[in-house]
Amino acid sequence: MSTKQTPVHQALENYAAAVHAKDVDAFIALYDDDVHIYDSWGQWQYAGIEAWRSMAGEWFSSLGDARVRVEFNDVRSVSGEDVAFGHAAVTFAGISAEGERLRAMTNRFTICLEKKGDGWKISHEHSSLPIDMETGEGIFTS
């Protein structure tokens, strides 16, 4: 990831660190209370911080001893005085307790941030995969 510290770059860096640490509180601290998420897994959307906290807790606890390494590539962002927008390709790689890469997937990731008080919070996130029109299945890359 770029060393350029826009609000989007900082949020993505903190996102990757929180996921790797399986730290629900650090992860949720990135988001606004009224966050709206379109996720690629499980359900169509999550509305509000408590629904997103529940998802994060379930995700992190399902990992057992494994961790997830998150890498953002081709990050693009635009920042204004009180809003910022960014998108990237994100790779989620499952890593065993011994450090071995178990599996990975790459999908598309978009975030919108709002300046709240003295910091930036993610107010909207959209994670997606292109769809194979022949099979109706998501197209995964790794």
Summary of the model, kept short:
By secondary structure, the chain is of the alpha+beta class. 24% of the residues lie in helices and 44% in strands. It has one domain: Roll (Nuclear Transport Factor 2, Chain: A), CATH 3.10.450.50.
Kindly list the characteristics that best describe this protein.
single chain; 142 residues; alpha+beta; Nuclear Transport Factor 2, Chain: A; 6 strands
Distance between the first and last residues' Cα: 17 Å
Number of domains: 1
Average per-residue pLDDT, rounded, comes to 92
Overall structural class, as computed from helix and strand content, comes to alpha+beta
CATH architectural designation: Roll
Count of individual helical segments: 3
Q: Low-confidence runs (pLDDT<50, min 5 residues)?
A: none
Gross morphology:
globular
